[in-house]
Design a protein that fits this description.
The protein is of the alpha/beta class and 300 residues long. It has a single domain, classed as TIM Barrel, CATH 3.20.20.100. It has eleven helices and ten strands. The strands form two sheets. Strands 3-4-5-6-7-8-9-10 form an eight-stranded parallel β-sheet. The protein has a two-stranded antiparallel ribbon with strand order 1-2. The chain is globular, with a radius of gyration of 18 Å. 48% of the residues are buried.
Length: 300
């Protein structure tokens, strides 16, 4: 679907009525020593949404960057994730305490489960019940999941009392997960794209390299006097997704939010849609196990 650029794409309304800035800064694989400056640069460039995770090891620096920016805490939407090592009801409540302490906040705007744990889904369900408790207690403003496939979402919805507000999944022109996105849309679950520029695919073998060098995207970018990255972010936003591009370079951080002054046509959106290769760049969700991916999250 296209949308007139006069329509405000800067915020998305979650299924509980909470407004969330549609575009945020991601800090996956950002070293702690670089995170603080990246967050400050983002907030200085106009970002008001920061996405981190307990497993990233940089929550403390995210909090310090927000504090040093001088931007009021209430103006910054803070999102983080519970790692599988902290799944289980009491463990997840403790995971919230740990993340909140590192971030230096009393309340987290969006708290999500980082992965489904297919080999111990009961533990996943217990973790989600803890999120529901945290929401009821006002310690978080919205809850959700990440990397949940349709079968995981279906099983979760059978017991959940709160429908996840967000499912953060890998989405970029080369891997679009349309079935997962459609299931989410049917149930009021917003798709949030991690690796929205396809960065996870740059280092993989195969016929496709970097999305930034894709000729279709490049042609569209030239038509709008924009960069390929800006075109991809605009594609996500016009199709109704939240995006959390990652960068540590101030000029790239500023470039990534400069996407609200042009419009892609229906044909251009369709051309990008047609680039889907159905090849995942990140880990296969069905392969996530505690033995393979579990690691302790340091205390605050």
């Amino acid at each position: 679907m296209s949308t007139d650029m006069t329509e405000n794409l800067t915020n998305l309304t979650l299924n509980n009525g909470l407004e969330m800035p549609a575009l945020g800064l991601g800090v996956f694989q950002t070293p702690p020593e670089e995170t603080r400056a990246a967050v400050e640069a983002a907030l200085g460039a106009g970002y008001r949404h920061i996405d981190t995770a307990a497993a990233y090891g940089n929550e403390r620096e995210v909090g310090e960057g927000i504090h040093r920016s001088g931007i009021a805490r209430r103006e910054v939407f803070v999102e983080t994730k519970i790692w599988i090592s902290d799944y289980g009801y009491d463990e997840t409540l403790h995971g919230f305490d740990t993340s909140a302490a590192k971030l230096g906040v009393d309340q987290i705007d969006l708290l999500i489960l980082h992965q489904a744990l297919p080999t111990d889904f009961d533990r996943t369900l217990a973790a989600y019940r803890a999120l529901e408790t945290l929401l009821a207690d006002g310690k978080v403003r919205a809850i959700g999941v990440s990397n949940f496939m349709v079968d995981h979402l279906t099983a979760l919805l059978e017991t959940a009392t709160v429908v996840p507000a967000v499912n953060q999944i890998e989405v970029h022109p080369y891997f679009q997960q349309r079935t997962v996105q459609a299931f989410g849309a049917d149930h009021g679950i917003l798709t949030q794209a991690w690796s929205p520029l396809g960065g996870i695919t740059f280092y993989r073998d195969g016929s496709h390299g970097s999305t930034l060098e894709d000729p279709v995207i490049g042609e569209i970018a030239r038509a709008h006097a924009k960069t390929p990255a800006q075109v991809m972010l605009r594609w996500h936003l016009q199709e109704g997704r939240s995006v959390i591009p990652k960068s540590t370079k101030p000029h790239r951080i500023a470039e990534n939010i400069d996407v609200f002054d042009f419009d892609l046509t229906d044909d251009e959106l369709a051309a990008i849609d047609a680039l889907d290769t159905d090849r995942r760049g990140g880990p296969e969700p069905a392969d996530i196990t505690l033995a393979g991916y579990g690691r302790p999250i340091p205390e605050a």
